[in-house]
Design brief:
The chain has two domains: 171 residues, FAD/NAD(P)-binding domain, CATH 3.50.50; 154 residues, D-Amino Acid Oxidase, Chain A, domain 2 (2-Layer Sandwich). Helices cover 24% and strands 27% of the residues. It is built from eight helices and 20 strands. α2 crosses α8.
Length: 385
């Protein structure tokens, strides 16, 4: 006999764990299926720290969502008794007309967010560890900070379990069907299940999961890239410790944003990375060990702008971006199957939104829609119907 659930969530990583948490909190009979462990380090939700900010120059419509995400992260901290976010503030550097500075300032004014604009001399005085160019300005966002991603995903999963969710790790979805109109069938390497609604949160494996449907196949418009994060030991480590240093980003106007996180007690070193889609990769064959040229993605920015942090390399990590064509998330119903919901294309900047994306997905799976403002993230922008 096939076990029946209200909702099945395929992929219990960042967004999937959050969806299970929100669904279970509403008393929904939910099953989460994950091909790796819960949690795991194969996708895009690891790395010990992830920035969170409200000044979303990428698109002003993200701001109401990130404000809700802040509320939901705080609620998860209260529910679990765990500290998941460090509100250390953010410093954004670049020319006044750069995307990060001009865009962030526009968003801050539009949404009445607190900020402080510094000229280059004020930056040098207040943040002497930076060496900004003469044409730089500084934008300070007091509410910015960083999330602990491994702890956040683990906490979402644990709280989902405590609320009655069933989570299955190391179980791979082989195929699914939504052709009969009354239920969705999901077959795995262990069992078969039915549900009223299914949510696919497969990250880099979303395209493969969508292909595991015998009829009416549809491929989401995403591509997967291999990304590098690194930790170095600063020449003056006391300048970069938690409590004395903000999250930061630098936009030099050449494509991509360099960013970093203060040093934290759970991992030695100062984290630095480049936010820019890199080399396309197969998620099942991604090179997880450092390769020649990886260090070049971050070393020049330290040497030029943060020389006191330009110390020996301690470690490098590899994660994957699942990039949509425009760099914005994809959250919508499957264009053919009304009972199927897809969340993908988080393009390297989605983690901070997990707490609100899970809420939106739970709304869609239980009510068929959500009041959260996610319309700009729908498939219609790509001409899907």
């Amino acid at each position: 006999m096939i076990t029946r659930y209200d909702v099945i969530v395929v992929g219990v990583g960042t967004m999937g764990a959050s969806a299970c948490y929100h669904l279970a909190g509403r008393g929904v009979r939910v099953l989460g299926i994950e091909r790796f462990g819960i949690p795991h380090d194969r996708g895009a939700h690891h790395g010990h720290s992830r920035a969170i900010r409200k000044a979303y120059f990428e698109h002003p419509d993200y701001v109401p969502l990130i404000e809700r995400a802040y509320e939901n992260w705080a609620r998860l901290e209260a529910d679990s008794g765990r500290k998941l976010i460090h509100h250390v503030g953010g410093l954004y550097l670049g020319p006044a007309d750069s995307e990060a500075i001009a865009g962030s300032l526009k968003v801050m004014k539009r949404h009445v967010l607190p900020y402080e604009l510094l000229d280059v001399e004020q930056v040098r005085k207040r943040y002497p560890m930076f060496r900004p160019r003469d044409d730089f300005v500084g934008l300070v966002e007091p509410s910015a900070g960083f999330i602990l991603p491994e702890s956040a995903v683990a906490t979402l999963a644990e709280q989902a379990l405590r609320r009655g969710a069933q989570l299955h790790g190391h179980e791979r979805v082989l195929r699914w069907s939504a052709d009969n109109g009354s239920a969705v069938t999901v077959e795995t390497d262990r069992d078969a299940y039915e549900c009223d609604r299914v949510i696919f949160c497969g990250g880099a494996w979303t395209t493969m999961l969508m292909a595991n449907q015998s009829q009416h196949q549809w491929q989401p418009p995403v591509r997967v890239t291999r990304q590098i994060t690194a930790w170095v030991w600063p020449h003056k480590p006391d300048l970069f410790t938690l409590g004395t240093f903000p999250i930061w980003l630098i936009d030099i106007g050449q494509g991509g944003i360099h960013y970093g996180i203060p040093m934290t007690p759970d991992r030695p070193g100062f984290k630095v990375a480049l936010h820019l889609p890199a080399s396309p990769t197969d998620p099942d064959a991604v090179a997880r060990e450092p390769m020649p040229g990886d260090e070049d993605t971050f070393r020049p920015i330290l040497r030029q702008f943060i020389p006191d942090a330009d110390g020996p390399l301690l470690s490098m990590g590899v994660c994957m971006y699942t990039n949509s064509p425009d760099g914005h998330f994809i959250i919508d119903k499957h264009p053919i199957h009304d009972r199927v919901i897809v969340a993908c294309g988080f393009s390297g900047h989605g983690f901070k939104f997990a707490s609100v994306v899970g809420e939106a997905l739970a709304d869609m799976a239980t009510a068929g829609k959500t009041e959260l403002p996610i319309g700009f993230l729908g498939l219609s922008r790509f001409g899907a119907s």
